[in-house]
């Protein structure tokens, strides 16, 4: 099986309670867990499978990206209510040795009319992975981290921009409108550090840390690039709990 297939099999075990994928594909002695609600190690996951099955957990995988030893999965979950989740797995010698994720309640009444998870799924332009990754990394630094905000429009094809953040309308105009409204409410969004980037072809996922409205937040942003411009965006934002609320000491990132 490919690493992509192994990652999906582990996620599907959350709904069917089958421990074999976790026991077969996750390292028994190296697994580092960054979901703060699970105990560290493989047993933290396998010990939760019966409960997750009993509450009717469902996982609908939409997109899977792979770069090097990392596999990123974008899914819609039923997990104590509808959720949108990014999972990232790191592999060593065919075994999963580390896991990160970000979880957000699904919002159905969106500003753009798009759902948080629909849109393009096909991976194309694999020969452009490096340049697309560089483009998105520069966008995050220049615009989201505020290092050179004047370059904002250079990253887009006019107002042709599909937005899946549930609170923002399509286009750069929609983004500007949302930021203006938040500013009027005293809500600020700050990206302070990029921790991970996973890219394959026309898709690039960035994992960042910052604050939203003064609250410590983890930002997972997925961008689709077309002809050298950012064409589509999905995200999942999660508040990072206090350290004393975590089940382990590995941290969110």
UniProtKB/TrEMBL annotation:
Domain SnoaL-like: 11-99, 136-233
Transmembrane segments: none
Name of the protein in its database record: Nuclear transport factor 2 family protein
Species of provenance: Planococcus dechangensis
């Amino acid at each position: 099986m490919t690493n992509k297939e192994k990652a999906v099999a582990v996620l599907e075990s959350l709904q069917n309670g089958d421990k074999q994928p976790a026991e077969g594909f996750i390292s028994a002695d190296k697994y580092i867990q960054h979901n703060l609600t699970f105990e560290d190690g493989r047993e933290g996951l396998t010990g939760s499978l019966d409960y997750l099955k009993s509450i009717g957990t469902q996982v609908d995988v939409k997109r899977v990206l792979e770069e090097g030893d990392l596999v990123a999965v974008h899914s819609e979950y039923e997990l104590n209510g509808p959720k949108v989740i990014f999972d990232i797995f790191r592999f060593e010698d065919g075994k999963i040795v580390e896991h990160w994720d970000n979880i957000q309640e699904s919002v159905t009444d969106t500003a753009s009319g798009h759902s948080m998870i629909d849109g393009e799924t096909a991976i194309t332009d694999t020969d452009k992975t490096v340049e697309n990754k560089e483009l998105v990394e520069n966008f995050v630094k220049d615009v989201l981290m505020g290092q050179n905000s004047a370059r904002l429009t250079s990253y887009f094809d006019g107002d042709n921009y599909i937005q899946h953040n549930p609170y923002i309308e399509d286009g750069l105009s929609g983004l500007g409108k949302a930021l203006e409204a938040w500013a009027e409410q005293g809500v600020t969004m700050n990206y302070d550090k990029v921790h991970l980037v996973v890219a394959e072809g026309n898709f690039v996922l960035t994992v960042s840390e910052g604050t939203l409205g003064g609250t410590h937040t983890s930002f997972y942003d997925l961008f689709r690039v077309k002809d050298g411009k950012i064409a589509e965006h999905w995200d999942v934002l999660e508040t990072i709990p206090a350290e004393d609320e975590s089940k382990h000491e590995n941290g969110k990132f």
